[in-house]
Design a protein that fits this description.
Strand content: 15-25%
Distance between the termini: 13 Å
Number of strands: 8
Helix content: 25-40%
Radius of gyration: 16 Å
Mean pLDDT: 97
Low-confidence stretches: none
Length: 241
């Protein structure tokens, strides 16, 4: 493992001052970079630790913000903000591009070698960046198997990996099928991993506040999903010393 340096980054998006978490690997050379998007509750230590873990592997990583520095632990407040956001691709793209611009401007980032990985709402934003034609080397989404506007998925020019729990009521089989049909029709290099017995947000450690129905942590599948993300990055964004 390498020594990791972290710092908070303020930037503007969606009419808010966002507060992201940047993690840098040791050294001063340019490295491939990863944008990390959080679940609908917002940026937390879970995503910060994931960015740090990616930096330990040698990536520049930015865990981006959704709610202007706030973490929405009240399910009703979270849904009141996230449902309109998920229904508005242009807003999602604005949030994603603002964070992507920050990551691309970081001197340690190789601007031609960037991936986007997101969970839930953050995963939907990663997909919308691809549908908007963003120059990405890979897209990974967990619990965020959203569909887009007709024809725009053909603008995704990188591999897409998606993970979902088999018992996720928020991303049920019909939603999975619509997502994969859209990817296939657009000619995207896509993969879907279904984790048996897992609920929504199975990757996220149990929280100490109420959640929406259908959420549950699955430690074994959480580890497997993380390995799948790392494997995606190793394939599409290999670290070369």
């Amino acid at each position: 493992m390498t020594t990791v340096t972290t710092r908070t980054i303020e930037y503007s998006a969606d009419g808010l001052t966002m507060i992201g978490h940047l993690a840098l690997p040791a050294g001063d050379d340019r490295r491939p970079a990863v944008l990390v998007g959080p679940e609908g509750m917002g940026l937390s230590d879970v995503e910060r630790r994931r960015a740090d873990a990616l930096a330990e592997l040698g990536y520049v990583a930015l865990a981006f913000d959704l709610h202007g520095g706030r973490y929405l632990g009240d399910p009703e407040e979270m849904l009141a903000r996230c449902l309109p956001l998920l229904a508005d691709p242009d807003r999602m793209r604005g949030i994603g591009h603002a964070a992507l611009d920050v990551l691309r401007a970081e001197p340690r980032t190789d601007p031609d070698r960037i991936a986007a990985v997101g969970y839930g709402t953050g995963g939907a934003i990663a997909l919308e960046l691809g549908r908007d034609g963003a120059d990405l080397r890979a897209i990974g989404t967990v619990n965020g198997l959203t569909t887009g506007r007709p024809g725009e998925t053909a603008r995704i020019h990188c591999p897409v990996w998606a993970g979902v729990g088999s018992e996720d009521p928020i991303m049920p089989p019909a939603q999975r099928n619509a997502f994969t049909a859209e990817m296939q029709a657009a000619g995207v290099d896509w993969r879907l991993t279904v984790y048996g017995g897992a609920l929504h947000a199975f990757h996220h450690p149990t929280v100490d506040h109420p959640t929406v129905p259908g959420v549950g942590y699955h430690s074994q599948h959480a580890q497997r999903a993380w390995r799948d993300v790392v494997d995606l990055l190793a394939e599409c964004l290999p670290i070369t010393e």
